[in-house]
């Protein structure tokens, strides 16, 4: 009935988690007739284990993590909510209709029960009770996990002919998927949908680099913990080898604390103004390096080209006094074979002139035209000058902009300049997160989360109209 009355509910994580939980309990108790209080207690504990097992797959799929301490927590939470919170809430609703004098006390009692539960949950350190995916959550692996879960939850009589061996057989595809060596692309660059903000994840077979952490939307939600960390978990990544924060604006650095608290960060490279801004917000700064022109390093990868090269093109420490602000952004150039990717932060026209000089100093013939450019300053008209675009002629340009945001990015004049050099344009406001994936042969495929997932009935038509490379 819910799916019929609210068709879009099937795209909600709450929908699937709730109904999987109910179906599991119904299945668990279907073949059981209580014979004694002791048996009832044992079966109740078993039901909590069944819930944890059944919700493991959808939890990893929708949230990117699952609580393995759920059976212990539920032994407290389920009786409290079932016997105290829900009855008080229902009684409060009835009293509001009949006699309103008692209603506030009933609702206060329900609220106190939830506050008590949250207090107990807060005593559990979050890393202790959380299980994350050890591998990339592909559909074959998810189907294998569902098969394994179904095998574990089947009643003993179902396997009367084959016994335990058939249960283990159900788990075999999952174990093979988890233990098999990961086959990752040589280079994957994903620009996440941060609204009016930026967060980029660069993946090689063995390393992960994050460029910017998106904004802090409120005290309880930010791009680092709420967007980047779940994406990393879905990719089977449990640590970041290098985090680069280009500059101190909220839409680039606001998620820093959230990401630091959610994922292990091996090394930090921060724009010149970032540490002071973060410290002024009361954050304790770990060990870091300051981003400066001339820094470079390389990561090994697969394919014909053995290494991916990273170069910092800006800022110039000697010019910071005259530039500063957006032009102090940490500018990153990534090169692999014939692919070249430029992440310029929020540099403006003055900063673009210095970057052009650095690009022209490279003697690599495959460098320009650029393969991918993340548009400077989200497509603001203070950046993406005609001289800059004409020189680099990016094959693809991506705008990390908020949908109908009051800044109005990308600016129509900027869009026109990229159209003149025939750049393929992408916008997170329209396409969601966009992944640029290079195969071992160097072939580029592009995947838009909003279009490739086909979450809505009109997606197939839009995929055809956009001429998407991937999917």
From the N-terminal CA to the C-terminal CA, the straight-line distance is 32 Å
Radius of gyration: 26 Å
Q: Pairing-aware structural class of the strands and helices?
A: alpha/beta
The name CATH uses for the topology of the largest domain is: Metallo-beta-lactamase, Chain A
CATH class of the largest domain reads: Alpha Beta
CATH architecture of the largest domain: 4-Layer Sandwich
CATH homology superfamily name of the largest domain: Ribonuclease Z/Hydroxyacylglutathione hydrolase-like
Strand order of the largest sheet: 10-9-7-5-4-3-18-19
Count structural domains: 2
The major sheet is characterized as: 8 strands, mixed
Shape: elongated
Q: How many β-strand runs?
A: 19
Notes on the structure:
This protein is 43% helix and 16% strand. The chain is α/β, with parallel strands linked by helices and 471 residues long. The longest helix is centred in the N-terminal third of the chain and has 28 residues, at 70-97. The radius of gyration is 26 Å and the shape is elongated. An 8-stranded mixed β-sheet has the order 10-9-7-5-4-3-18-19. Strands 11-12-13-14-15-16-17 form a 7-stranded mixed β-sheet. Strands 1-2 form a two-stranded antiparallel sheet. It folds into 2 domains: 2-178, no CATH class; 187-466, Metallo-beta-lactamase, Chain A (4-Layer Sandwich). The model is unreliable at 159-165 and 455-468 (pLDDT under 50). It has helices at residues 2-5, 13-30, 37-62, 70-97, 103-122, 139-153, 164-179, 223-234, 250-253, 256-262, 274-280, 349-361, 386-392, 412-420, 428-431, 449-452, 459-466, and strands at residues 65-67, 130-132, 187-191, 200-203, 208-211, 239-240, 242-245, 264-265, 268-270, 289-290, 296-300, 307-314, 331-336, 339-343, 372-374, 396-399, 424-427, 434-438, 444-448. Helix 13 (386-392) links the parallel strand 15 (372-374) and strand 16.
